[in-house]
UniProtKB/TrEMBL annotation:
A single cellular component GO annotation: cytoplasm
UniProt cross-references to InterPro entries, sorted A to Z: ATPase_NBD, Gcp-like_dom, KAE1/TsaD, Peptidase_M22_CS, TsaD
Compartments reported by the entry: Cytoplasm
Coiled-coil stretches: 228-255
Domain of life: Bacteria
Source organism (scientific name): Candidatus Shapirobacteria bacterium CG07_land_8_20_14_0_80_39_12
Protein name in UniProt: tRNA N6-adenosine threonylcarbamoyltransferase
NCBIfam families, alphabetized: gcp_kae1 (TIGR00329), T6A_TsaD_YgjD (TIGR03723)
Annotated GO biological process: tRNA threonylcarbamoyladenosine modification
Known function: Required for the formation of a threonylcarbamoyl group on adenosine at position 37 (t(6)A37) in tRNAs that read codons beginning with adenine. Is involved in the transfer of the threonylcarbamoyl moiety of threonylcarbamoyl-AMP (TC-AMP) to the N6 group of A37, together with TsaE and TsaB. TsaD likely plays a direct catalytic role in this reaction.
Amino acid sequence: MTILGIETSCDETAAAVIQDGQKILSNVVSSSVELHQKTGGIIPETAAREQSRCLIPVIKESLTRAKITSQQISALAVTTGPGLIGSLLVGVETAKTLASVWRKPIVPINHLQAHLYANWLTPNQEKPKFPALGLVVSGGHTDLVLMKDHSKIKWLGGTRDDAAGECFDKCARLLGLGYPGGPAIAAAAAKFKEQRIKNKVKLPRPMKHEDNFDFSFSGLKTAVLNEVKKLKEAKQFKEVNLNQLADEIQEAITDVLVTKTKKAAEKYDVKAVVLAGGVMANLRLREKFELTIFNSQLFSPAPALCTDNATFIAARAFFNYHPVPWQKIQADSSLEIEEVIKS
Ligand code: KG4
Ligand code: ZN
C-alpha cells in the first residue's frame, strides 16, 4: 500500500510517499524557518501564506521523487490537528480536494500520535511491541502515553504549562540565541568548557521526583530569566557564561524527561519505549536515554525524522487505517493525543 502523507500543522510544508508504512519513497519538507528567524518566532499568518504557496509544488515533488503518479497512490493521509488553524486548513483542504478529484481514500491523522510512528519507518527491522510507552516531546507538547495497540492510546501525563521544546525556544530567546531554540541551545552547550568558569549556574529540575507523569517547564524558564538578569547586572553576560547556562538548561530538561519516562515504563511494565518529537533530535537527550537501563526495548527515530515531516503521517495512516469520506474531515487545532472515540 502506497500512501501520500501531507503535513502542515506548524511552519513546515511537507509531503511524503511511504510504502507499507515503513519504506520512505520520498520525503519533501519546505520550511519557512528563515522567515520566522527574522521575527524570532512563528507568525501564524506568515506560516499559512507560505504553506499555500508551497504545498502543491511540494506534493508534486514528493510524487516525482517517489517515481509514481497520483494514480498509483493507494490513499492520502493528512494532519488534521493539533496545530495552527490557518496552517492546518491549507493542508486539510488541499488533501480533501485531491482525494475527491483523484477518487482516493483519505485518512485524517492526529499529528501527536503520528510523531510516534517515525519509529515504525524501519523496513526489515523489528517494530515496537505492545504495550508500549510513548513519549512525544515537541514544540507545543510533552506527553507520555500508553499504547495498548495501534488504536488504543491512553494519556498518562503531560506538561502543565510550557512544552519541552517551547522551553528550549523561550530560553534561547532569553539568551539571545536564534530560532528554533532547541538546536541553538544544543550548539551553545556543545561549546561549553567546564574548566573555564568559576560559578556554575544550577537550575531546578521541576517535578522530577513527583509521583505522577506530569511535567512543568515554565518555572525553569523563569529561573533562566533570573540568572540572565544576574549575569547582566554583574556584567558577566558573556559567551562562556551563556554556554554554561545553555548546557545547564539542556541538562535540566533532559534529566526530567528521562527520569519520568523511566518511571512510567517501569510502572506499566511495557515491552517498548517509543520516543518521538522534535526535541528527540537533541543528541544529549538521545545519549541520556541510551545510557539509561530500561527493562524494555528503546526506540528513537533518526534525528531527521524527529522534527516535523510527512513520513510519519503516512506511516500512522498505514498502521491505523481508517479512511473517512472527505466531506467529514475537518481541521481541529486543539486535538489531544488521546482521542475520544466518536461513535
Ligand atoms: O515536533 P516538532 O518539529 O514540531 C512540533 O510539532 O512542535 O518540534 C519542534 C521543537 C522546537 O521547539 C525545537 O526547538 C525543538 O523541537 N528541537 C530541538 C532540537 N531540534 C528541534 N530541541 C532540542 N534540541 C534539538 N536538537
Ligand atoms: Zn510535530
